[in-house]
Specification:
Layout lengths: L6 H17 L14 E5 L3 H13 L4 H13 L20 E6 L5 E7 L5 H11 L4 E3 H10 L11 H14 L7 H4 L27 E6 L5 E7 L20 E4 L3 E7 L1 H6 L2 H10 L4 H15 L1 H4 L4 E7 L4 E5 L5 E5 L4 E5 L1 E2 L2
Parallel strand pairs: 3-4, 10-13
Antiparallel strand pairs: 1-5, 1-11, 2-3, 2-6, 5-6, 7-8, 8-9, 9-10, 11-12
Helix pairs in contact: 2-3, 3-4, 9-10
Bound molecules: N-hydroxy-L-asparagine.
């Protein structure tokens, strides 16, 4: 008796069983399914970022173009944590980190970039116009100027100036790890304990780093991150947001992930690459993010009590999920039928 089956029959069977198979891995397949295209961005403000990017995706454009649109929107706004209006380092200088990755595993990044308004667009030029992945400091700025990005003046935004002056007084010019999470500057709302508030007193949504991941109508994935990094950091410090595999990773066969929070802890575990690898092994986006968070906590449980890291991911099925160490990490999802902020689950 022959056990061979025709190719057509095999394909029919595989098409039917493949999605089911992933559910047979115990404890691995939970999460929220949605449709493509999909745009996911960190924090409540991610909702506006998604809106800015959406017209690209709804017109069947490329995910990587949507990511850049979202980044430009948030970089052009004044906030604590993204763009030239953000909080400076301990020397009072705003330095920006950004990265981008597309469906072909092309990637580009800039770190410690000064005086340039749209760092993610510079990262995209690095990706598309150079054989390199990462440019830093003066070299990154020189490259940006050569590519037509204007040099902006070194002026702190009103919010950043106030926060910096307050920090100088309180901390006597000593860098304090996680200062951005420990001081709820501009807010009296303490709904997240010592961690970043959801909203400022005037109702503006708060956010940290803007991480974005998207799948376009063709099913292709891309992602990007843009940030001023940890507030009042040592001049020259680079976090996870410029790091491919740390703050962002995209594998067009599997999924994409991005992170926000204390970049050092994300770098230590190659966080977003780890999340994508967990998804490759059958975990849902939410459980993959949870496993990465657990890895951070396991390395140093005592330290993990005082820090925040959040991951958010999507897989090739358009399933999304997030997880963080502490309460308070949120991400926004936009599809044709959904426009929603999700509070991520958390460990502690
Ligand atoms: C960094 N991950 O520079 C960024 C900062 C951040 O919430 O996300 N803050 O480490």
């Amino acid at each position: 008796m022959s056990y061979t089956i025709g190719r057509r029959k095999f394909l029919q069977l595989s098409a039917f069983t493949a999605p089911l198979l992933s559910f047979r891995l115990p404890g691995k397949a939970v999460g929220i399914f949605t449709t493509k295209p999909i745009m996911v961005s960190t924090w409540d403000e991610g909702k506006n970022v998604n809106a800015a990017a959406w017209h690209v995706l709804s017109a069947k454009g490329r995910a990587v173009d949507a990511i850049e649109k979202g980044a430009i929107y948030i970089e052009n706004k004044i906030s604590c944590c993204v763009g030239l209006g953000a909080y400076p380092d301990r020397d009072g200088i705003v330095t920006l980190d950004a990265c981008i990755m597309d469906e072909h595993a092309n990637c580009g990044a800039v770190a410690g970039l000064e005086h340039i308004k749209n760092p993610l667009s510079v990262a995209r030029k690095v990706m598309e116009n150079t054989p390199h992945v990462l440019l830093v400091g003066n070299g990154a700025q020189q490259f940006a100027l050569e590519n037509g990005f204007p040099k902006e003046p070194a002026i702190l935004s009103e919010d950043a100036k106030k926060a910096y002056e307050q920090w100088l007084k309180k901390n006597q010019y000593k860098p304090v790890i996680n200062i951005e999470n420990q001081t709820a500057v501009n807010t009296s709302k303490k709904e997240n304990g010592p961690f970043a508030p959801f909203f400022f007193e005037d109702g503006r949504p708060n956010h940290d780093t803007m991480g974005m991941i998207a799948m376009d109508a063709s099913g292709n994935l891309s992602g990007g991150v843009t940030t001023s990094g940890m507030a009042f950091k040592i001049h020259g410090r680079v976090g996870d947001s410029a790091g491919i595999g740390a703050g962002l990773y995209v594998d067009n066969e599997i999924g994409a992930a991005t992170s926000s929070g204390v970049g050092e802890e994300v770098i230590r575990i190659c966080g977003t690459h780890l999340v994508v690898e967990y998804m490759r092994n059958g975990y849902s986006p939410e459980l993959a993010c949870k496993k990465a968070v657990e890895r951070i906590v396991k390395l140093n449980p005592a330290k993990a009590k005082d820090i925040q890291v959040g991951f958010v991911a999507i897989n090739k099925n358009g399933q999304h999920g997030g997880y963080s160490i502490q309460k308070g990490f949120a991400y926004a999802v936009k599809t044709a039928g959904v426009d929603k902020i999700y509070q991520s689950k958390y460990l502690q």
